[in-house]
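#dry-run=false #mode=assembly
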Amino acid sequence: MTVTEERPPTPEEEHEAIEILWEEAPGTPGFFASVDHKRIGMRYIYTAFIFFFIAGIQALLLRAQLTSPDSQVMGPQTYNQMFTMHGTTMIFLFNTPVLAGFGNYLLPLQLGTRDMAFPRLNAFSYWVFILAAIFMYSSYLVGRPPAGGWFAYVPLTNREYSPGVNMDFWGLGVTFVGISTTVGAVNFIVTIFKMRAPGMTLNRMPIFVWSILAMAVMVIFAVPALTVGTVLLEADRLFGTQFYDPSGGGNPLLYQHLFWFWGHPEVYILFVPAAGMVATVIPVFARRRLAGYKWVAASLVAISFISFGVWVHHMFATGLPALAMSFFSAASLIIAIPSGILFFCLIATIWRGEVEWTVPFLFALGWFLIFLLGGITGVMVSVMPFDWQAHDSYFIVAHFHYVLNGAVVFPIFGALYYWLPKMTGRMLDEKLGKVSFWIMFVGFNLAFFPMHVLGLLGMPRRIYTYSSGLGWDTLNIVITAGSFMFGLGTLLTLINFLNSKFRGQPAGGNPWNADGLEWSTPTSPPPECNFESIPVAAGRHPLWDSEKLEEAESGTDEATKSMGPSGALNRQTPILSGLQSGPEETMEIPEPTYTPFVLALGIAVIFLGLLIQAALVGVLGLVVAAIGITTWLWRTESDLQ
Amino acid sequence: MTRARCRALAGVAVGIVLLAACSKASPNALEPKGPDARSIADVAWLMFAMATAVYVVVAGFIIVGALRGAKASRISDNAFIWVGGLFAPIAILAILAVVTVKTTDSLRTPDPNPLKIEATGFQYWWAVEYPDEKVTTANEIRVPAGRPVEIGLHSKDVIHSFWVPELAGKVDMVPGQRNVIRFTADKPGEYRGQCAEFCGLQHAKMAFLVVAEEPGDYERWVIRQQRPRSGPSSEREAAGEQVFMRSSCAGCHAVRGTEAQGTLGPDLSDFGSRRTIGAVAVPNTRGHLAGWIENSQSIKPGNLMPPVQLEPDELLNLIEYLEGLS
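#status=ok
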């Protein structure tokens, strides 16, 4: 710092000083203290993928059991535990967090800022996620995994029919992980509204950011319903209340309403960001602007609204009045309209563009062909009479795998091929990627298409075995073969990723010649501070719109002082506001800290106390959480100045 | 265009699989055996046709669009969005909305003078009562062909779901409420039903049969069930009855007209005429029955019935007695 007193620093010196300032402690201490959104985002993605492969192996074991009638690969208890954990893991520990991971990593970069609005909250949401995951999976360590289904319908999951801690692992774990999703959503929303680069008006916001915004708003309104549902469930289980017990004046259908009031928006919570990924990738490789940008943004928002009016289509067979159900049937049909608009905006983009057949584009194409069918069958099952046949049969298993696996996992794989080079600095192999895609695509359709037929042939879901002579045998063999093929395809991408770590081509700043601000950072991975100078967004496709990206300069007032390198040098980033994204004030980016981890750990101990019903453990958790939250909020003299 | 050919081939392959699958004796929702399932199947076929058309057209646009390169296009972005994204879906959905309302209405309209039955789900079997006829049975529902049936659905433990794909859609059995399902079986036959809501360990083996009979045959069955019991017809049956009453059987099962009035397990009054044991777990043969009595846990692990230890001749007499119940 003596240098600055004598003469202004040269850009090189400044650059070096910024690097030193943003560098994080190495090793374990640094790991637990980091608040950097890139680090947290990648952690999210890596952790989620570990659970993807765990749940994938569970799926293959389930398929092994169902390959032939009366097979003995596993007994009913093991099977029921495994399909419960497969669904729970895929929804809560893979799909939701992996999308949060991409959001975390990409949002500040796409918005042109140096971190999320609440970096410590961001770290906290990761720690809650991983601790909740460990919490749920420790059920295997004590040999008591839940077996009541990932949807955990009462009365089957109450104390009487599911004794033991098995379902408590589920009920408490899901409640716990909901904290992570909710605070993450708050962070996304505030970041989007307060951290957009100068010039990034709402109608210039990247489509992926729109999709994260729509997703986060859904989370805020949907997850509380789930939390209420599981808290009442646990109250019934642990404290003997009777919210869901008809003999005590409760109602088992109340649980279904609460669960699906979250559960159906949840499908869109996963689908919408995945669609945002597709809508990001397609223009890049069709080499043209996204057709109907405003339509796409509006349809993502429309989907997030309508998604709250469709939950009863999961309950068409529960005996509700036909007139009441017909409203939900209508809403379920109507949600196809924004999906259709989204679809045709992308088709128009491809139609009038010139396609470059990269792996990310292939996965986007896979999304099209798979989601198209998943969407069509979705319309079918919103037609009540048809649903009365299809509901809880393999037709539904086929339908929601086309949506949740096809229309979510395929874009996520495409996103890996597209964004991992930015994250790791190395390209993945295109050839291996294409092989992986085609094996996944063919395997997927072999595995899930025949399930439609199987459902109409009368095979119900969630059965651990079936007799021969029902006409289900051949199709089940095909399905198992397809599922193993799909698994192999995903494995090839894993190999591709590991290989790229050592032998991948260096990615450079913008290997795809893409349009978004995340590609404007000169290096991959981006510098720790993202942007030494905050970029100015001149259009919807900033890197395509002008030859050279304009950068903001630090002003002298409070609002603009952190725009230039001096902001990076002081660990600051500007807060911007309003539709026009005008500078408002300056935010200090917090130093690395352990407090988010301590708070998350404290909450985990509270849940452990509830699980083993030990008041002392619960109190201990409260104390740890209190320490965490106090140090988090503590302000020193220097903070206040 | 090889891609299009691939898809055509795939379509043919799928068709073959479908045909192969349909030719076997599945409880097939698309081969309805009564008017209720038929009206749903009609909706299904209509939607399959529309779905195929939509899929082919839209996927065609995607594939052609991706392959056509940078050629100039006469179709504007807005044409795609308005026609493909807005008008076409609205037209299709409007048709489906009308179909939904009409079909729902006709399916939910009660028939005049139906046969009334009450069915109750248990983990993992079905109790069946004919309140007007005052007949009780289990796991097998006898109905006269051609007569509308109205079944009240109940549950005494967890949620089950009543599903006979060839006759009707499914309706849940929810504790604390009474739902209703209606169907008619056109012709005599045996229609397999299965629990469709996950209900615990043996959800997979909670099936049942709807047995539709000529009205005369059905009447005879009802009358037989209403008649006071005539005693055992042979010495061995008499010995078997003693075994039944003495051992643990009578604690859980009921046999009409005897002191056995247990309600934890299925009523066995017409057991000899039933086609399966353990809610369609195994066929009702003497061999399977012996295995079931000795250790039903090896056939359907987790069901409530404990293994029963009997001397060989006791077992034979018991089987003789049970098979004689009709």
